[in-house]
Write a structure and sequence with these properties.
This protein is α+β, with helices and mostly antiparallel strands. The strands form three sheets. It has a four-stranded antiparallel sheet, covered by helices on one side. Strands 1-4-5 form a three-stranded mixed sheet, covered by helices on one side. Helix 5 runs antiparallel to helix 6. Helices cover about 50% and strands about 15% of the residues. The structure holds flavin-adenine dinucleotide (FAD). Flavin-adenine dinucleotide binds next to strand 1, strand 3, helix 10 and helix 11.
């Protein structure tokens, strides 16, 4: 099993300190006023968070997937919204690093590494996000590029991002459907509008939007990698990183809920003793600790698979599935431990409870991920 290098360990510790000193004191106010965390995002840029998956010479310093997962965990421990704010950006970075032309890498990656240019990915459409081969956004090839028409929904960070990795059909008639799908790197050009911010139960402070493309013209060099019909496979590869990130977010939220519950259970007394001494409460805490540790090991295993260059869709899928379900349970149990205070908006546990379900739904629902896992288990003839 691989471990972090000394330098990576320092990065995780630096981010953890920043979370305790800068994020936790302000998160409740930002959350309840649904305010975009501009200052915190600037600090994340300074710390190099936006460049964590961008190697030299395009970025300053890239880290292992395991380190990336742990940085995500720490940031989500402070506020899940902050971790979400660089999740899609990391996937787009990975896509350009791995599949982009040299010209695309040079054009985008240096500015993405500093966070000066932020990116998001647009897959989901009003008619559905699970069946991506059925997407309806079409980029019609013309002499000097493509003309895009269609709509996307639930796109995170769409207003703040200067670049969108758009999953679309460059050939809507071909079979199998995925062979007509491409990714276009679209900047804020005429014909592309961000129309509406969607209201949400959690994930506050960071916008999730509807996008519209009306005869939106982009040039030929917007096509990721320069070859049509590769977008579906490219995106599925990028989502391995995305799912490890979402699992890291879930672990971070669960850790925050556990930390709060552990502290509260020692301070609060009932029947003359701290409540953790009541076996029912103690058992909840023991199960939380066990489940979080199991989730971490699963996610680090997925990250190590990705770092080794092996296909990691099953491992990343398992990590995202387990960690998101685990986080939802841990957050509900943290409310139980807090009793009535757990239902108060003055305590952080209600926020964790509202944030946790996003990780069940986002980056491929857990139902869809079970399909991925079982298909791989059959193909690999087991757990190899
Ligand atoms: C806050 C937020 C942020 C998001 N950010 C982004 C983003 O940045 N970019 C982006 O592209 N998308 C984003 N999404 C969208 C998200 O990825 C989709 O919501 C998700 O993929 C599910 O798609 P859907 O909502 O259309 O559900 P549907 O596809 O309509 O699914 C509905 C239900 O049917 C189930 N289902 C569907 N097909 C199957 C199947 N084959 N087997 C078993 N069950 C199935 C699903 O699991 C689900 O329970 C975001 C969503 C939210 C809520």
């Amino acid at each position: 099993m691989s471990t972090l290098s000394a330098e990576e360990q320092q990065i995780v510790e630096l981010v953890a300190r920043w979370v305790d000193d800068e994020v936790r004191p302000v998160v409740n106010e930002l959350e309840h006023s649904n305010t975009y965390p501009e200052k915190l995002i600037e600090q994340m840029k300074q710390m190099g968070v936006y460049g964590l998956v961008i190697p030299e010479p395009y970025g300053d310093f890239s880290v292992s997937a395991r380190c990336y997962a742990q940085v995500t965990e720490e940031i989500a421990r402070g506020w899940m919204s902050l971790a979400g704010a660089f999740g899609g950006h990391s996937v787009v970075s990975k896509l350009i690093v791995r599949f982009g032309t040299e010209e695309q890498r040079q054009r985008y990656l240096p500015r993405m590494a500093t966070g000066e240019l932020r990116a998001t990915m647009a897959l989901t459409e009003p008619d559905g996000g699970s069946d991506l081969q059925a997407i309806r956004t079409v980029a019609r090839p013309v002499d000097d590029g493509y003309v895009i028409n269609g709509s996307k929904t639930w796109i995170t960070n769409a207003r703040m991002s200067g670049l969108v990795a758009l999953l679309c059909k460059t050939d809507p008639t071909t079979e199998p459907a995925h062979s007509g799908i491409s990714i276009l790197l679209v900047e804020k050009v005429p014909g592309f509008t961000v129309s509406r911010d969607l209201p949400k139960m959690g994930y506050k402070g960071v916008e999730s939007c509807e996008l519209h493309f009306d005869d939106c013209h982009v040039s030929t060099d917007a096509l990721l990698g320069g070859v049509e019909g590769k977008g579906f496979v490219q995106m599925m590869t990028g989502l391995e990183t995305g799912r490890i990130q979402v699992a890291g977010r879930a672990i971070g939220v669960a850790r925050a809920a556990f930390d709060d519950a552990l502290r509260y259970a020692q301070e609060r007394e009932a029947f003359g003793v701290p409540i953790w001494k009541h076996q029912s409460v103690g058992n909840l805490l023991a199960d939380m600790a066990t489940q979080i540790t199991a989730g971490q090991q699963l996610n680090y295993h997925a990250a190590d698979c990705l770092d080794s260059g092996r296909r990691a869709d099953m491992e990343a899928g398992m990590a995202k599935l387990f960690c998101s379900e685990m986080a939802a349970k841990v957050c509900l149990d943290a409310i139980r431990v807090h009793g009535g205070h757990g239902y108060s908006t003055e305590f952080d546990v209600e926020r964790y409870y509202r944030d946790a379900p996003l990780m069940i739904v986002g980056e491929g629902t857990n139902e869809v991920l079970r399909n991925v896992i079982v298909k791989q288990a059959i193909t690999r003839n087991g757990l190899t």
